[in-house]
Design a protein that fits this description.
two-stranded antiparallel sheet; 5% strand; Damage-inducible protein DinB
Length: 160
């Protein structure tokens, strides 16, 4: 299996696992705070710190889904040769539209994947790596975030 096919297969596998949770999210899940110390979306603005706090706040599903939207939209911008969005430009669309927003990014990424030269130099997030590294990173970052959202959804369902 060629590198591109393997990376796309891994992406599709991760996304398939994500769909299990996306299909089961209810509006109240997104802003549920699982701990006293959380990162969430407040008045449309995601919590943020320029350096990681200690202890690290537990993110809400809303915050993790915004985070996916931020890093993934910037990766898509770079891959498509567009001006990358600033973090402040990435707005969480709310619990009613977030699943469609994430699925739209999935569709755009899936359309871009076959066009990418995996051996080309990367512009994001590591200029000393290749586009292939970026594709592998997207898969890993998405897998991590899918796991976080899944675990948060399961925890909330267990305490309801």
């Amino acid at each position: 299996m060629a590198d591109r096919e393997l990376l796309h297969w891994q992406f599709d596998l991760t996304w398939g696992l994500f769909e299990y949770h996306l299909e089961r999210l209810v509006p109240g899940d997104h802003l549920w705070e699982p701990a006293d110390l959380v990162w969430t979306i407040r008045d449309g603005v995601p919590d943020w710190a320029e350096s990681e706090p200690d202890p690290v706040p537990v993110p809400t599903i809303a915050w993790v889904s915004w985070h996916i939207g931020w890093w993934w939209s910037v990766a898509i911008d770079h891959a498509a040769g567009r001006r990358p969005r600033d973090r402040a430009e990435v707005v969480w669309p709310g619990p009613e539209r977030v699943v469609d927003w994430l699925r739209a990014m999935r569709d755009e990424w899936s359309t871009l994947l076959p066009t990418l030269d995996l051996t080309a130099p990367s512009t994001f997030p590591w200029p000393d790596r290749t586009v292939g590294h970026v594709v592998a990173w997207v898969n890993a970052e998405l897998m991590k975030n899918v796991t976080e959202i899944g675990q948060l959804r399961l925890l909330r369902a267990a305490v309801r």
